Amino acid sequence: MTGTVLIADDHPLFRQALALAVGQVxxxxxxxxxxxxxxxxxxxxxxxxxxLILLDLKMPGAVGYSGIAMLHAExxxxxxxxxxxxxxxxxxxxxxxxxxxxxxxxxxxxxxxxAAIGKALGGRPVTPAASQSPLDSIRQEVAGLxxxxxxxxxxxxxGQLNKQIAHSLGISEATVKAHMTAIMRKLDVSNRTQAxxxxxxxxxxxxx
Length: 208
Hints:
The protein is α/β, with parallel strands linked by helices. 52% of the residues lie in helices and 12% in strands. Helix 7 crosses helix 10 and helix 8 packs across helix 9. It is elongated. The mean pLDDT is 83.
């Protein structure tokens, strides 16, 4: 079975270019395209035989590295290759910390893109791992949040109260509180303000 590849990017022409590259590396693959983070999050829940996600950091609905963390939470076993115009070395290290298998600049030529896709499909890191910094372990905790916990954390970053979060996510306030307790335990903080500060310090609240 060839499987499915998700291309999440808000530029149709670049999605087309990536689809051509996928076709060269994995002939016969089903390519699913998404132009927003919400569409990508929905796609990963319904796609059959998903083998790879090609993700742009700068797309509607994404804040900082939130797209990686959210999609990684939805499908932790599927490699995510970030293809973005974000700045090189620092971005390459941070996307890996949030659960991506590697980073590729949009300036890369087709041969480089095809090689990176091939590596990612094989489960091999596309960019070499740097030495771990103290923040990396916290990033990994964020990457380990469940999809709903991550949505709650983003809502907290947005300044929403528990009642507002419950309404927007269609859950009870008690469930929101339970998720917050789990989030604070994973981030090793004692209140929601500290949780928001930690998330913001990791780049979840910065646009790239």
